[in-house]
Amino acid sequence: MSVINNVLKNLESRESNFTPIEIDSIASSPAPARDLKPLLLIAVLLTALAAAAWYYLQDRLFQPASTSLPVVVSLAPEVPSPAMQDAVEPESESAAVVADEMTGNQIIGLQIRESEQDMSMEFALRDRVVAYLKERGENSFGYHLRDVESQIVAPLISDNRWLQELEIVASQTGVDINFLTAADILVETRQDLRDGEPIWSINLRKSAALTESEPEPESEAGAAVTRGDEPAVSVSQPAPATAEVQHPAEAAAAPVEIDIKSTNPNTASINQLEYAVQLINSGRTAKAEALLQGLLGGAQDYTAREHLLALYGRQRQIGRKQRLLRGSMAQYPDAALFKTEYARSLFHSAAYRAVIEFFAKEATIDVTQQALVAASYQRLDEHQDAIKYYRMALAQDANNARNWIGLAISQENTTALEEALNSYRRAARLGGLNGRLQAFVASRSSTLEQVLN
User: Fold this and answer.
1) Looking at CB atoms within 10 Å, which of 154, 299, 316, 425 has the fewest?
2) How far is CA 276 from the centre of its chain?
3) What is the mean pLDDT of the chain?
């Protein structure tokens, strides 16, 4: 035991020297450092793609999701409601004047007045205008009207003793009025208010020297001397006494009687009618109505009544329109226009039976009147008679899409579904319908197709 104990003590007293053994085939080599550049590049690309997708889809993300509704097939046709009256009601043939949407200052009318002494061009404006002389030649003038647009076209000038050319040209800053006058013509411009309406006018007159020295045109006694479109001037001199010989100086001093007569007595009323239409287009209906009322009973009576009817129709002045229609039919008993407009006014008043009875007294009625009778029968739910008159109208004018729609509605109400579908398809092929009628035709056609299939 002592020997063993001594050996153990000897071992404990020795220093421990441990030397590790390295084996190349087993030892693991340290991992190389990773390159992070490709990962960063991929992350940047993914971020850019996500941002682009967000901008592209942001409108869609905030829209409510559309829900699909079950298709309901209805066998009951849609009876024309007041909202669909324009589908079956024939279009008006009266001279309705459509008002343009006006913005800013504009030239809305031109009147040319001419007399023996001068000539004036009056430009009607919406507001006052800044005008100045832009160009001046021997007989040429160019005026610029600033911040204004032109709604008119310059008339063609020919055979006029005052004016040779007239041009209205739009520019970036306004409108240029360019014109060429005859020789020795004085030009004056002015701007004033006439009945509250701004007027910019150009006045042309002969110079005083020319007026004093210009000889009278030679003509026989009582002969009419005319130059182009100017008024006819009748010059008559008293015949000398046969027993008395006049001295040449006395004969030259003999008085001259001048009777100025217009070669076109309707010129003034035609200009007033055109001006009234321009006023309607610019929205000044009160003044236009007064002008048209003043033309009643004159040379433009028929056309003035036509425009007044259109104006009253637009303003929905039913009472005035019916009074004017009754007077117009009394004065023009054979005019189909006034008969049609009178029946249309009855139709708008829901007097459908009165429309039918009114045309029952006529020996023949035109296409528009037949369509009015058909629409009146349709409003009374008498669809067989409506189909009869719609077919009469389409026999004369097969390209009226509204009449095909009216026929289809009555055919649906008589359960002639296949014929109704064909009529709707015919109306769709013809086209010319507004968006609401197109949607109506498409809806009824789709429903009928589902029913028939």
Assistant:
1) 316
2) 17
3) 74
Give the chain's domains with CATH numbers. Answer: 100-210 (2.60.40.3500)
Q: Which long-range contacts (CB under 8 A, 24 or more apart) does 294-303 make?
A: 295/269, 298/269, 299/265, 299/266, 299/269, 300/266, 300/269, 300/270, 300/272, 300/273, 301/331, 302/332, 302/335, 303/95, 303/273
Q: Could you read off the pLDDT of 110-155 as tens digits, one per residue?
A: 888 888 788 888 888 888 888 888 888 878 888 988 888 887 788 8
What single-letter amino acid sits at 235? V
Give the type of residue at 256.
V
**What is residue 189's DSSP assignment?**
E
- Which of 151 and 327 is assigned the larger pLDDT? 327
Please, are residues 9 and 1 in contact by the beta-carbon 8 Å criterion?
no
Closest by CA to 90, choosing from 344, 334, 335, 384, is: 344
pLDDT of residue 4: 65
Longest Cα–Cα distance of the chain, Å, equals 203
CA distances from 202 to 120, 228, 248 (A): 5, 21, 42
Q: How many CA atoms lie within 13 A of 355 on its CB side?
A: 28
Interacting residues of 99 by C-beta distance below 8 A, sequence separation 6+: 280, 281, 282, 283
Place of tokens 């021997």: 138
Look at the block and give the residue holding tokens 């919406």.
126
Q: What are phi and psi of 78, to 5 degrees?
A: -85, 115
Q: What is the pLDDT of residues 70-103, one digit of tens each?
A: 333 334 444 444 445 555 566 554 443 333 334 5
Sheet of 185-194, strand order: 149-150, 106-114, 118-125, 197-206, 185-194
Question: Are the C-beta atoms of residues 89 and 375 closer than 8 Å to each other?
Answer: yes
The SS3 of residue 18 is: coil
Are 123 and 201 spatial neighbours (Cβ–Cβ below 8 Å)? yes
Global pTM?
A: 0.46
Token pair for residue 353? Answer: 């039976």
